[in-house]
Amino acid sequence: MLYQFIRKKIHARQHPGSTDQKRQCQHQWQNQNQESELGPVRLGNEHDPADAALLSDRYPAPEQIQPNGPCQKCKEEKHDARVYRSKLIAGLVFPYFLASVDLTIVASAMPFIASYFNKLDQLNWIVTAFTLTSTAFIPAFGQLADVFGRHFVLQLAMFLMLIGSVFCATAQTWGMLLFGRALQGMSSAGIMNLIVIVLADNVSLKENAKNTTIFQFVSGTSYGVGPVIGGYLTAANWRYCFVLSIPIAFFAHFAIFFLLRKELVKGTHAVKSFSSILSGLATVDLGGTILFILGIGLIILGTSWGGATYPWASVAVLVPLVSGSILFILFFVWEYYLEPGRVLGRIFPQQTPMVPFPMFKVKDTSLLAILTFATGAALYSVFYFIGIYFTLVEAYPSGRAGIQLLFYIPGIGVGVYLAMFACNVWPAQTFAPLSTGTLVESVGVALITWAVTTRNIPLINGMMAVAGAGTGLRFMPSSLHAAGIWPDKLAPAMSIMRFCLPFGGTLALAIMGSVFNNKMASIFHPSSPSSQSQSGRFDIHSGKSLDDINKLPPEVQEHIRNTGKDAVMWAFISIMPIMVISFVSGIFLGNVWIKKKRGESVDQRGQASSTPPADDEENIESNEVVYVSYLWALLTGTLDDKKCITKPLTKAQKQRQAAALLEEKQHRAKLGHNPTDAENYILTSNPHPSKPT
Predict the structure, then answer these.
(1) Name one Pfam family in it (predicted).
(2) Shared-domain flag, residues 280 and 300
(3) pLDDT at position 576 over 90
């Protein structure tokens, strides 16, 4: 805001007479262009009722639009955009808050919850059960959103959140608690993924940036206040951490139904009966979904058990790791052969690949996945292991430990604001915030590691803010970058991004938990008389195990806390390679410009305006995209040659595309027809966007 104000003042001083005459909007310019020709071009015969649909009044006659001054058409479009954004905020802010806060509300409560069930040495499973399902089901929810529509799948996710919260709040056993957390994680996968898809539907990248900024700020705030809320609720009873979600989920059901039911994009199958649901599921990639869930689940299970519950070389660890890796590889093989025209595509002609394999032929898809993976690793590690540090090492109560994590919020807020400025104002592109955020986040996590070693609490708090700024810088631009390079495959593109964030956090927590438990083995499971004497009469399986530490002699307490400090330090060191890889990946990233450049040539405008808009065409701006390395193209002077033009699909275009694809698949299934390469190209969205002229 301040930047725009200063820029207007400077421009007014340099060009005194230019501010009086406002630049023409798109409608005024098109109207003036029509006046300069023989007359407005009308499609169809105005006397023929069959051509009445072509005589659209979306663009009024020249005399109805004033050449200067405010444009009524622009006012109407801005009003509609504000109403649509208001509905999105009112209908989705509570589900988004719920999915975000449920991830971190147990950060400061985990040791106390685990102690209640006598499972302090398995406390990482409270978050692992959540992140395992929240990671594995993200691509599945993305495909279900295309089949059954956004509204039905979003309501399904909210119902799972309600049931999972009830299970957790009333849990009487460790297994019942983990089952409830798994349901909450499954719900979070659907909510977070669907909201990102909904925000990208029917709008330009510029409008998407505004909407996403609001929700990313809500997400960052929820991540930060979650441990504080959980800490104070735990002081009363840890079950209140899960009771809180029940009324919010109940209210969100009605908000989504009354505000967004008619606004959201519908699927290819209407949910009217049980048979219609079965018909819709027949088009879902069930084989890929099963392979993906089992593969990811076994990998996370093996990394969580390794070194903590079982030795790394044990059968209990190696079997899940090996079998999970094989299933994960088979998932990509399955997706490749499920493409139209290939073996599985001919066997299951109605099914659509959960992750379209050609998307990974564009390098930015893989690079964005790496960056988002690292973002999840940094985010989860700070919230959970800094919480463990303050609880175990500094002996803070749960409420105070949660307050310490609040230092992450200002950093996220600064990062989100800088990302909003970089995407919406200057330089109006995604490369700058993504690459800068990668560097800042890596530096912040590295300095947190050093601060933990020295037990320097002010430095830990400051570096949490720095790491939060790096995380906030990458929240919104990653989604915008994915929407820019894949405007016609929003659901799978957003699913990949949403999958990588919790997957990075889950895998990072599994690695860190394994390292942490290995370093704390002498405390958790003392095997020698010397280690038993050093740990005193500390029983890890006691329901009051955290309180028992304070009852030990001072020298024994100091030994346990120093061991915990070293364990947390090495846990952070174990994820530093992920940070380094993400920094290197950010250098080779392409670029997406959020809005058109103001200095468009007259020829380009004339070419655009000479084509009359379709009856359903919406005022969605096109965007310039660079698929090769942006820095390399900039250094070699080939940036203009590498630019391409992409444009998001309108709501009507999406509906027609889905209907045409479904009709073609059903036709091929009846005839047993194998499509040719030319037909496959037509059925597949154009992977080669047009270059600017």
Answers:
(1) MFS_1
(2) no
(3) yes
pLDDT digits (tens, 9 = 90+) for 401-450: 778 878 887 888 888 888 888 887 888 888 999 999 999 999 999 999 99
Distance of alpha carbon 117 from alpha carbon 126, whole angstroms: 11
DSSP state, residue 173: S
Among 245-259, 455-469, 495-509, name the one with the lowest average pLDDT.
Answer: 495-509
Domain end residue (candidates: 320, 353, 386) = 353
340-349 burial code (b ≥16 CB/10 A, e <16): beeebbbebb
Same structural domain, 311 and 400: no
Q: Tell me, yes or no, whether 294 and 386 share the same domain.
A: no
Residue 38 lies inside a defined structural domain of this protein = no
In the block, which residue shows the tokens 């992450």? 408
Does 272 score more than 90 pLDDT? no
Only one residue has tokens 């890796």, namely 325
Residue 352, SS3 per DSSP: coil
Per-residue pLDDT tens digits for 1-58 = 555 556 666 666 655 555 444 555 655 556 555 555 444 444 444 444 444 444 444 4
Last-in-domain residue among 353, 388, 403: 353
Please write down the long-range contacts of 356-361, taking CB distance under 8 Å and 24 or more positions apart.
356/489, 356/492, 357/332, 358/684, 358/687, 359/486, 359/489, 359/492, 359/493, 359/496, 361/687
- Spatial strand order of the sheet with 623-626 comes to 591-592, 623-626, 643-646
* Mean pLDDT value across residues 195-221: 75
Contact 105, 241 (CB under 8 A): yes
Least confident stretch, 46-60, 349-363, 625-639: 46-60
Task: Say which amino acid occupies 288.
Answer: G
Q: Which two tokens stand for residue 18?
A: 């230019």
Phi-psi region for residue 620, left (φ > 0), alpha (ψ -120 to 50) or beta? beta
Compute φ and ψ for 623, nearest 5 degrees.
-135, 150
For residue 94, give the H/E element and its range: helix 72-104
Q: How far is CA 135 from the centre of its chain?
A: 11
